[in-house]
Specification:
This protein is mainly β. It contains 1 helix and 4 strands, in the order ββββα.
Amino acid sequence: MFVQTDQVFEMYKPVLIGDRLVSDVELSSVRRIAGRDLLTITYTFTNQTGELVQIMHTTVVGIISDDFDASISDMIERVM
């Protein structure tokens, strides 16, 4: 199971009506901290003319089934 821990947006240009966005997705970092895997995924959005519109960085932590408490799903759903 993966749980999102962080999300950062870099805004470069407003998205306008009629824009067609293209997304490039990259696994930009993998680290192990306190026995957990932290993955950072970077999404780069450009418009139809190739201009940079937005970059988004999302970090998630991997939880293995041995450490997974079934009640966490209920807690996460209530937060979302």
